[in-house]
Predict the structure of Poly-beta-1,6 N-acetyl-D-glucosamine export porin PgaA.
Amino acid sequence: MQPLRFGGRWMGGHPGHCSRARTGCHRFLRPFIGFAALGLLLAPTGAAQADARFPDGRLPATDAPASAYGDDVRAGPDGHPNADDLAGIAERQRQQGHPGIALQLAERVLTYASSNPQALETKTSSLSNLGAYRRADQLRRRHQPEWPEDVGDRFRADKATAAIQNGMLEQSRHQRRHRYAQDDVALSAALEQLNANLDDFAAGSEARRRTRFDRLVVLRQLRHFDDVIDEYEALRRASVTLPTYAQAPVADAYLARQRPEEAAALYRQVLDADSSAPLAVKTGYYYALIESEDYEGAKQQLARLNDRTPTWRYRENQTASPVPNWERSEIDRLRVRDAAYRHHEEVALDRAATLYRAAPRNTDVINTLATAQRARGWYRQAQATTELAEAYAPDDKATRLNIAENAQALEAFPRWQATSEALAEQFPSDSAVRRNRLEWLDRQHFSLEGQGSFGRSHGGSAVNGSQDGDYQLRLNSPWSAGGYRIYAEQSYQWGDYDEGAERHSRQSLGVERQWLRRHWWAALSGEPLNEDFGLDLGWSQWLGDHWQYQLRTQTQSPETPLRAERADLDGRLYQTQVTWRQNESRDATLTLGALDISDGNLRSDVAAELIQRVQASAHHQTRLIGSLSAEHNRDVDADYYNPEDQRTAGITLEHDWLTWRRYDRSLTQNLSLGAASEWESGYGGAPGYEVSYGHTWQLTRTWSINYGIGWESHAYEGEREKRWYGQFGFEGVL
């Protein structure tokens, strides 16, 4: 394990974990919420540079002459180096960050000059620097009870540093055993000691300055990120340069407060100063690049980590088993998450499954596998995998977060609520826990959504219209504990025809329930000042992770042609739909429907659609959509467009470009190109075309808008009609 540098010495440490997530914002796709995401236990850095006087870290032989220590060391009595010269070198070695060498030099001086004050002071200070502060205190009391104030302050600072070291080890120990309620006790006590020292140490003293640096480390470990940033910026205003070990916690704080560019710059400084910096700094730099949307830089950083992190730490001899490198496991799991961030979900799952086969009882690996399965839409598989992790480590934070996110996806709302509440109470500063909790709380609020369009047509007489438009508004109540809510809907359609304009408005009031991936709804609708009420009933259910069916009926269907509405006709809709979803990249839908219009016409149709994602990266996704449809109408005399038979075979290419993103805010450009072969009874076949372009803005975590324009061309009764249209929509939580 790479030791951790802290306050002038190295110490052991253990990485912690928290989740980070990247969320896609394409309005047509279920957003990917994966792991993403991933916390760091602080690894303070800043290794001392190699010593020019003793480059190999070794002292001359004990009987070596004074010249072996350097040209500035005089010869002393009995062939020994001058005690004062050698003691001065020892102190400079300590100040340069080499307390081990300083201790050895001081002890050599004391073998032939036992009362040398500089050697005694350096030995005591070096022991304190190395963490043996009790032994150092014993020496101080025995030989130098009245130290100068600055030396005494330095000794107190060393004691505080040792307390921080012990506090971090205690924190790590409690977290490994999932005793989260106790993990900060020792570090909080160390912070109190640092605060007391700050009050006592003289302004401008070396001890006070170092205490401020060490305090940054403790504040970061206690997740007081705002305090870290405030203190760091105060130090910058005072033109104080931070040592590298204190830069890493500041970088963590900037990253936690969604300032990734500043975090990346600090991580880069640490890595440039110390190529052997702990893994947490290297992965922190990776995350800062990812969250700065610098995916190419993150790719290069991950490649470096992958190439330079061996599977095994070392082997005592050829017959002994090699010692595994825990850092390799972290890198392997990071490679899973990196693939998911880039929308390579299949690659992420393959990597996670490979890790699981190699370490089937490692809860970190099991949770990584569950997250990869959930990213592919396999929620029941993810739940079964998480239950395995729960059996091994029921109190583990990552396992419990997976349980909450699985419950959310499976619509097991009581379990989601209970798990989310417990996590939020125990880990209020964890970003993934906080986001999951906010998503639960969103259900306790009203929500609003709307969509509208406007079009202009010309060139054909069959449809006989020049302008058209529609909009739908829906207000939803908060969800109840049992998964119920009520909703109110307003819809409006209008069109201009040669014979005049037609307007149709309708209001609906309904109730729905959603639970365990089942959904039913019932709504009563009607026109203003009209007793022509209609009923909308529906049922939908997922069968496992791959199949869904839906049944629906409407007694006053909005699918009824507008010109039929003008003639006081109404239509009853009967529809069933079956969806097969293999994964996030491929799904197919079959829809059967019948519209029974009150003039005796029965409009029956069948449609099939296959969606295949053909390209995906962090900022681009491309889908190919193939569709087939057929419609048959009874031969009735109608004022609306009513061919006896229609058939269509089409293909559409959709591309989404995530142009800009800043955490919960983003802009996505949407482009769609479609072509179809269309056939109409009595007129034969003709091509159809459609192109559209739009923007989707994610304004906040809960609010988004979309808008766009489009052009289409189709043949009706042998005549070509062309249409321009625009659309606008929004949705959000109130």
